[in-house]
Amino acid sequence: MKKLIINCDDYGWDAPATQAILELGAAGQVSSTTVMANFASDAELRALAKLASPTLSVGLHLTLNAGQPLSAASQVPSLVDANGQFYSSSQLWQRFLLGQVRSAELKLEIAAQLRRLAAAGLPPSHADSHQHLHQYPLLGPALLGSLRELGVRRVRRLTAAGRLDGRGLVLQAFALSSRRALRGFATPGALVSTFSTEAASAAGFRRGVGAAFGQAQVVEFMSHPGLSERPGSPLMRVPEYTFWRSGEAHELLRELGGELVSYAQFAQ
């Protein structure tokens, strides 16, 4: 039987996303979430620790491109601007390509984020990254190497299955460039990101998961639910929350010949 992981990104990013993920996890409608360790509060981590289980895995949403580092800015000066904030994705990537980012500082901050989750009783089952940094050309292999050295064994495999828009094609190119660096990790064979470009619906779920099941035995569905929309974001968080909350995905998944699993429940 095919296996589907429904992973909610961005736990801790803001209150509407965090509360939506808690509600969906408690209702058994999703099977995984990844935490922005430099954003989530202690109370939010405690709430998630009460829900975490073999059927609701908790991983790290590695964040090096939003907010502040957990490390002191003086310890990671090549990662932050004059205000002590992380650079944007494009800025970080350009700085890395120019040799202006120190690999030791990347590893230090990754370790700090992993350590914060573990200290909260949430040893990460897996990792992905904010805006797919771990599969950027050249930068991605460096991040994956640090994750491997720090004991992470499962990561997201970026494939953008079923996405033919411009960004989807760019992501597919990124995925090809970092494929070798994923060796040694357990990964789902395909990633469905259908709801990143259209409002969540039964038709979109069926199309995206159906296409991915044609490629792989284990598939991840990337989700960004929220109780309200985030200003300036193209993601449609409320429709995603509403769709998952309805429970319709479970019936559709059965029709497609699949079962819901967590990151902690699959091996490859």
Give the secondary structure arrangement, pairings included.
Elements: E1 2-11, H1 15-26, E2 32-35, H2 42-51, E3 57-62, H3 89-97, H4 103-119, E4 127-129, H5 139-149, H6 166-177, E5 190-192, H7 202-213, E6 218-223, H8 237-246, H9 248-255, E7 258-260
Parallel strand pairs: 1-2, 1-6, 1-7, 2-3, 3-4, 5-6
Question: Could you describe the 3D structure shown?
Answer:
One of its GO terms (molecular function) is deacetylase activity. It holds the Pfam family YdjC. InterPro entries: Glyco_hydro/deAcase_b/a-brl, YdjC-like. The protein has 268 residues and is α/β, with parallel strands linked by helices. The chain has helices at 15-26, 42-51, 89-97, 103-119, 139-149, 166-177, 202-213, 237-246, 248-255; strands at residues 2-11, 32-35, 57-62, 127-129, 190-192, 218-223, 258-260. It contains nine helices and seven strands. Strands 1, 2, 3, 4, 5, 6 and 7 form a seven-stranded parallel beta sheet that branches. It is globular and about 50 Å long. It starts with a strand and ends in an 8-residue tail after the last strand. The model has no long low-confidence stretch (mean pLDDT 94).
Keywords for this structure?
TIM Barrel; seven-stranded parallel sheet; alpha/beta; 268 residues
**N-to-C span:** 14 Å
In CATH's first tier, which class applies? Alpha Beta
What are the segments in which pLDDT stays under 50 over at least 5 consecutive residues?
none
- The general outline is globular
**Secondary structure category:** alpha/beta
Number of helices: 9
Number of strands: 7
SSE series? EHEHEHHEHHEHEHHE
Binned, the helix content reads: 25-40%
User: Rounded to an integer, what's the Rg over CA atoms?
Assistant: 17 Å
CATH architecture: Alpha-Beta Barrel
CATH topology type = TIM Barrel
CATH superfamily label: Glycoside hydrolase/deacetylase
Protein name: ChbG/HpnK family deacetylase
GO molecular function, one term: metal ion binding
InterPro entries: Glyco_hydro/deAcase_b/a-brl, YdjC-like
Cofactor: Mg(2+)
